[in-house]
UniProtKB/TrEMBL annotation:
Domain named FAD-binding: residues: 2-253
Molecular function terms from GO: FAD binding; monooxygenase activity
Source organism per UniProt: Actinocatenispora thailandica
Gene3D superfamilies: FAD/NAD(P)-binding domain (3.50.50.60)
UniProt feature, compositional bias: Low complexity: 278-309
Annotated stretches, region: Disordered: 252-309
Entry superkingdom: Bacteria
Pfam families assigned: FAD_binding_3
Protein name stated in the entry: FAD-binding domain-containing protein
UniProt keyword terms in alphabetical order: Monooxygenase, Oxidoreductase
UniProt keyword annotation of Acyltransferase present: no
Cited InterPro entries: FAD-bd, FAD-dep_Monooxygenase_BioMet, FAD/NAD-bd_sf
Length: 309
């Protein structure tokens, strides 16, 4: 079939890889001028890593399956993948493995500790945190040349008895199937479901990828701190970087200059030796730098009741 995927984010690219592998003719339309490398980092749990392995995308090193509480699920090497342990397809690991996830309250008292190696042994797949840009690059690299058409904003989708017509900056094209993977401002959703904008759910999230906090960046433990105002999280993300974020309710969260001040004081504004020297907000028109060493990625987004990118 001729299939159009609108949006070249993680979901859209993963779907495109699966459809291409099944023999479909796939076109991905992306409004940005190039790969959407903005954003901080993402954590892929074992089930997501297994799905990516089936798509030919290796994130890390497989681990031997062993006994776990309740018994282990036998894992077979994925097609084009690798055996019970060792890297696959010559692809170097992305990011950093996460072995434990610890949650504490606002005073630092432990609430719980999750042993994620149980998932490793259960599935043979690690839990890993990695820069979003690195995952986007790896997903993109496996697609046939010309699959993605950048700088092509979709304006509307019209369904008919003979398929669907996609109206974009490049013109009007017909497809058998159209899939909307274009985020909470989805043009596909507006055309097919409702023209009303997605409803915000009342939370703001700030996220960053920063070369600070070496004890976190060099470890294998993720830390979550929960308080009355919201949640703060930190994860090692590889290459000496820490993925950090905090989520606050809209009514409780600082806005404008009040919000930027504590972010800068945490190393996001530069000025002190060894800390990143650049921070700016991320938007589709202004991708956020995510390279390590000299830059910090800071992203603020308002969560909405629709699938994100």
């Amino acid at each position: 079939m001729d299939i159009c995927v609108v949006g070249a984010g993680i979901g859209g690219l993963a779907l495109a890889r699966g459809l291409v592998a099944d023999g479909h003719r796939v076109r991905v339309l992306e409004r940005a001028a190039g790969p959407t490398r903005g954003g901080a980092a993402v954590t892929i749990f074992s089930n997501g890593a297994a799905a990516l392995t089936d798509l030919g995308v290796e994130l890390g090193t497989r681990v031997p399956v062993g006994p776990v509480p309740g018994g282990a699920i036998p894992v077979s090497p994925a097609a084009g993948g690798f055996g019970p342990s060792g890297p696959g397809n010559g692809q170097p690991p992305l990011g950093a493995p996460i072995e434990t996830l610890t949650s504490v309250d606002a005073r630092g008292r432990r609430i719980m500790r999750a042993d994620l190696t149980v998932l490793w042994r259960h599935t043979g797949q690690q839990v890993r945190t990695m820069p979003r840009a690195a995952l986007i690059d790896r997903l993109t690299a496996g697609l046939p040349a010309g699959t993605i058409r950048y700088d092509t904003a979709v304006e509307s989708v019209r369904a008919g008895s003979d398929g669907a017509k996609v109206v974009s900056a490049a013109g009007t094209d017909r497809y058998d199937v159209v899939v909307g993977a274009d985020g909470h401002r989805s043009a596909v959703r507006r055309s097919v479901v409702s023209p009303a904008p997605a409803a915000e759910v009342g939370w703001d999230t700030w996220q960053g990828l920063t070369g600070v906090l070496p004890a976190i960046a060099g470890g294998r433990t993720g830390l979550l701190a929960v308080g009355t105002a919201g949640l703060v999280g930190m994860m090692p993300a590889g290459q000496g970087r820490t993925q950090w974020w905090f989520d606050v309710r809209r009514d409780d969260g600082p806005t404008g200059r009040r919000a930027r001040t504590p972010v800068r004081s945490a190393g996001c504004g530069g000025g002190s030796p060894g800390t990143p020297n650049r921070c700016r907000s991320c938007s589709p028109a202004s991708p956020t730098p995510t390279s390590g060493g000299t830059r910090t990625c800071c992203t603020r987004s308002r969560t909405a009741g629709a699938t994100g990118r």
